[in-house]
């Protein structure tokens, strides 16, 4: 019966996963169909604009050519009209002179005839008809303004859609996820020397497999990539996976997207648990700061209010408390001199890494891990349930590793930022200079229950960086330095 139920549960789980996969594919199809409709409408609008632009250019060219023909016509007509007017005037004068000469032949008096002959001779010498050019200044030829658009017609007939680059292919084997960076590599299946650049898009997701249309995250875009490889660096891995896709672009148009590739980007992400932190600590998600007004002063105020009247505070009075009631309720709030705050995510397996930076004026702080059972009065490193490095800048400067109320002084400079490496399965807790990756100290133990990141701060503040992969340099150092540095056993003979 139990085996049948287990088998049925597996079948139900398989069916649910398949239904989820099909539903996601249905969403993709609907999204694609909507995209086809919207993109087709946009392309048709663009096509109308392009042809309207062509029509406009043709109209402008036609108008310019018509104006040129009309100007040439007007110029030649004016020249011919001027010549025609001159010729008509000359002809009229010449006909008048001819008539006068003809009449002069009938003059009988020699003296009068001689006078008329001289007049005719003088007038002929000055007559415009003899100075007039009888060749037209312009011809009626207009062939220099003729057109032949046969080549242009061929070009217009050859109009076609732009050549679109083929979709690239992302090569998962060549992609690399390391040191909170992702290198994405791709290639073109067919050589295309007209490609100008590539566009890479990525987004974070908690779903494996095909990207989800209804994923809550938007695609981030990196444009104008000249090569076939790109590295995203300085990422915070606050999701399990990242989707990537790429497309090629020529000078005019972008091609199809490549098939999306999903790469795993898993890392430890946690916030600080303000429900159990000491009242003297002001806690945000990744920051904690000493708050001298948050403890006894507030407690005394609350006690004073409770002692007034009937001893039953009104709802308004209780709402004035500086801190909300614990939301997790998994443990008591730290109190006394245990100025402690824990992370809200337990480490139960695997290798993890995070970094801590103290304020410059911070007088005292500790960084490490602890079991959930750490008492509310317990300080980090003073019990067998916690491990830490402790920095003291008050009265005297000390830097030490602490566990089970034992202390080992560290003869190294306190770094600006401390990197914490926790190998739960390997039973190792190591501290590094986060910038140089110099090993500061290592505890070697066997964790018997889940551990939580732990922090103590007094007169100052700490800020955390989570969502980080174990750096490659740390992995290398762990292999080479394992067993060669101080361990928890060395603290057994040390005094506090």
TrEMBL record:
Keywords: Coiled coil. Residues 105-162 form the COS domain. Pfam families: fn3 (PF00041), SPRY (PF00622). Residues 290-335 are annotated as: Disordered. Residues 309-322 have a biased composition (Polar residues). Residues 298-308 have a biased composition (Basic and acidic residues). Residues 164-268 form the Fibronectin type-III domain. Residues 70-104 form a coiled coil. InterPro entries: B30.2/SPRY, B30.2/SPRY_sf, Bbox_C, Butyrophylin_SPRY, ConA-like_dom_sf, COS_domain, E3_ligase_FN3/SPRY, FN3_dom. SUPFAM superfamilies: Concanavalin A-like lectins/glucanases, Fibronectin type III. It comes from the Eukaryota. It comes from Heterocephalus glaber. Residues 268-473 form the B30.2/SPRY domain. This is FSD1-like protein isoform 3.
């Amino acid at each position: 019966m139990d085996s049948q139920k287990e088998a049925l549960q597996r079948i139900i789980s398989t069916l649910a996963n398949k239904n989820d996969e099909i539903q996601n594919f249905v969403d993709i199809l609907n999204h694609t169909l909507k995209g086809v409709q919207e993109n087709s409408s946009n392309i048709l609008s663009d096509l109308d604009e392009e042809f309207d632009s062509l029509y406009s250019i043709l109209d402008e060219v036609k108008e310019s050519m018509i104006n040129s023909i009309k100007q040439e016509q007007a110029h030649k007509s004016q020249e011919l009209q001027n010549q025609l007017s001159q010729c008509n005037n000359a002809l009229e004068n010449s006909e008048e002179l001819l008539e006068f000469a003809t009449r002069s032949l009938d003059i009988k008096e020699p003296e009068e005839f001689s006078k008329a002959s001289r007049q005719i001779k003088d007038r002929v010498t000055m007559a415009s008809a003899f100075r007039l050019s009888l060749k037209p200044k312009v011809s009626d030829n207009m062939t220099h303004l003729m057109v032949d658009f046969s080549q242009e017609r061929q070009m217009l007939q050859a109009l076609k859609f732009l050549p679109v680059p083929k979709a690239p292919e992302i090569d998962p084997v060549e992609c690399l996820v390391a040191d909170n960076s992702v290198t994405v590599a791709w290639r073109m299946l067919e050589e295309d020397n007209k490609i100008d650049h590539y566009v890479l898009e990525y987004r974070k997701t908690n779903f494996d497999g095909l990207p989800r249309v209804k994923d809550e995250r938007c695609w981030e875009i990196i444009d104008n990539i000249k090569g076939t490889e790109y590295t995203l660096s300085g990422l915070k891995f606050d999701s399990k996976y990242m989707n990537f896709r790429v497309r090629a672009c020529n000078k005019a148009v972008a091609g199809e997207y490549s098939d999306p590739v999903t790469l795993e980007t898993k890392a430890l992400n946690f916030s600080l648990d303000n429900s159990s932190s000491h009242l003297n600590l002001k806690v945000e998600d990744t920051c904690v700061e000493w708050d001298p007004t948050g403890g006894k002063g507030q407690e005394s105020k609350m006690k004073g209010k409770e002692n007034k009247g009937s001893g039953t505070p009104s709802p308004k009075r209780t709402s004035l408390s500086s801190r909300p009631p614990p939301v997790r309720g998994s443990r008591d709030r730290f109190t006394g001199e245990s100025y402690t705050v824990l992370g809200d995510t337990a480490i139960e397996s695997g290798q993890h890494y995070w970094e801590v930076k103290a304020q410059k004026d911070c007088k005292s702080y500790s960084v490490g891990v602890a079991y959930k059972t750490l008492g509310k009065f317990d300080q980090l490193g003073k019990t067998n349930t916690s491990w830490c490095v402790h920095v003291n800048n008050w009265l005297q400067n000390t830097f030490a590793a602490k566990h089970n109320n034992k202390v080992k002084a560290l003869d190294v400079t306190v770094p600006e930022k401390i990197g914490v490496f926790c190998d739960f399965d390997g039973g190792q807790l190591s501290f590094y200079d986060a910038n140089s990756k110099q090993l500061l100290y290592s505890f070697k133990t066997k964790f018997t229950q889940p551990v939580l990141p732990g922090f103590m701060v007094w007169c100052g503040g700490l800020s955390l960086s989570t969502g980080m992969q174990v750096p490659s340099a740390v992995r290398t150092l762990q292999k080479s330095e394992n067993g060669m540095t101080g361990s928890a056993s060395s603290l057994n003979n040390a005094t506090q």
